[in-house]
C-alpha cells in the first residue's frame, strides 16, 4: 500500500493531465482530458474535475496526501488564482480553492508551468546535484524557473524565473505582454517559424510551417532556417547570461519542443553565450538539454506539492481564496 502519494495536475492550453506520483517521482496512474480552452471558466474547470475524479476512484487515492498544480501562467500562488494567456475563460480564476474542494479538502500547491518543469529537472533531471540553476521551457512560449541555494525559488506569486519576458532587444518587436524585444518574441517556436517565413524560407510539399520543420531545414543547411535558429539562440544566450550575472546560476537547462532541434539550437547557443556571459563568475556556466521530457509538468507539480507539504517552499502553497 502506497501511503505517501501526491496527485499532480499539469494544466495547459491543449490538455489537462493528471497523475498519482510516489515519493521517488514515479507516475503510478494517469488521467487526461483535452482543455476546452475557448469555453467559459466553469467548463474548463469541469475538465479538471473529471481528471481528479478519474484519479480518485483508484484504490491508490487513499494514500494521497496533497495536490500539486503546474499551470500555464500567469499564476498567483499567493492568491490561489490563475490567468493563463491561452485560456481566456480563466482570469483570476480561483483554481486552488476549486481543486481543494474537488479533492476532498487535501492541501493544494500551485506553481507556474516553468517552475514545475524546474522542480522536475532539479529532482530527477539535468539540474540534479546543482544548487543554483535556471530551467527553461522553450516551445509555444518561453517560460522558466530558478533553483537557488539548493531550493526551488518560485517567488511570492509562483512566477520567478520567467525568462521569456526579459527584454533582450530594446527597440525590438512589440511582445503580446506589452513590452518590447522579449526573449519569447524572438526564441519561441512560432516566432522562429514566423521569422524564417518572413525572410524567404518556404515549407516543403507537406506545408509544415512549424519550428520543427524549420529545424529540419536548418539541419539540411538552408541559410534562412539556420539564421532564424541562430537569432533565437542569441536571444536565449542574452537572457541566460543576464540571469547568471544576476543570481550566479551554474547550469541552464533547456526543455520544450524547440530544444528538440538539438545541435541546430545548442551549438549556436553555446557560441553566443561566450559573447554574453563574459564576467569571470559566469564563464563556467553549463548549458544542457532537459531530461524529464513530457512528464516534467506532472513530476514537477508533485515535487512542488511535496516541498510545500514539508514546509520548505511555503510560498508555493496557497491556503487562501
Automatic annotation (TrEMBL):
Stored Pfam families: ROK
PROSITE patterns (alphabetical): ROK (PS01125)
Matches recorded under SUPFAM superfamilies: Actin-like ATPase domain (SSF53067)
UniProt name for this protein: ROK family protein
InterPro entries reported in the protein's UniProt record: ATPase_NBD, ROK, ROK_cs
Family as reported in the entry's similarity comment: Belongs to the ROK (NagC/XylR) family.
Amino acid at each position: 500500500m502506497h501511503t505517501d502519494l501526491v496527485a499532480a495536475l499539469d494544466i495547459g492550453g491543449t490538455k489537462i493531465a493528471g497523475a498519482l506520483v510516489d515519493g521517488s517521482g514515479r507516475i503510478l496512474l494517469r488521467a487526461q482530458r483535452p482543455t476546452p480552452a475557448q469555453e467559459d471558466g466553469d467548463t474548463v474547470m469541469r475538465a479538471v474535475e473529471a481528471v481528479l475524479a478519474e484519479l480518485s476512484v483508484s484504490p491508490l487515492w487513499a494514500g494521497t496526501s496533497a495536490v500539486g498544480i503546474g499551470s500555464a501562467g500567469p499564476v498567483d500562488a499567493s492568491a490561489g488564482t490563475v490567468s493563463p494567456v491561452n485560456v481566456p475563460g480563466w482570469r483570476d480564476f480561483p483554481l486552488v480553492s476549486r481543486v481543494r474542494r474537488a479533492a476532498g479538502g487535501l492541501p493544494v500547491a500551485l506553481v507556474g508551468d516553468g517552475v514545475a518543469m524546474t522542480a522536475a529537472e532539479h529532482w530527477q533531471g539535468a539540474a540534479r546535484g546543482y544548487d543554483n540553476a535556471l530551467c527553461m521551457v522553450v516551445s509555444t512560449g518561453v517560460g522558466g524557473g530558478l533553483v537557488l541555494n539548493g531550493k526551488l525559488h518560485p517567488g511570492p506569486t509562483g512566477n520567478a524565473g520567467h525568462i521569456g519576458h526579459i527584454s533582450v532587444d530594446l527597440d525590438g518587436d512589440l511582445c503580446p505582454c506589452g513590452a518590447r524585444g522579449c526573449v519569447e518574441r524572438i526564441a519561441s517556436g512560432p516566432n522562429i517559424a514566423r521569422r524564417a517565413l518572413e525572410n524567404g524560407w518556404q515549407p516543403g510539399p507537406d506545408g509544415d510551417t512549424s519550428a520543427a520543420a524549420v529545424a529540419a531545414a536548418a539541419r539540411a543547411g538552408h541559410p534562412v532556417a539556420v539564421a532564424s535558429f541562430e537569432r533565437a539562440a542569441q536571444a536565449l544566450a542574452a537572457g541566460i547570461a543576464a540571469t547568471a550575472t544576476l543570481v550566479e546560476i551554474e547550469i541552464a537547462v533547456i526543455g520544450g519542443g524547440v530544444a528538440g532541434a538539438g545541435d541546430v539550437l545548442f551549438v549556436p547557443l553555446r557560441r553566443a553565450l561566450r559573447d554574453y556571459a563574459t564576467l569571470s563568475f559566469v564563464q563556467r556556466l553549463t548549458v544542457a538539454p532537459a531530461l524529464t521530457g513530457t512528464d516534467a509538468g506532472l513530476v514537477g507539480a508533485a515535487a512542488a506539492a511535496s516541498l510545500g507539504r514539508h514546509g520548505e517552499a511555503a510560498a508555493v502553497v496557497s491556503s487562501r481564496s
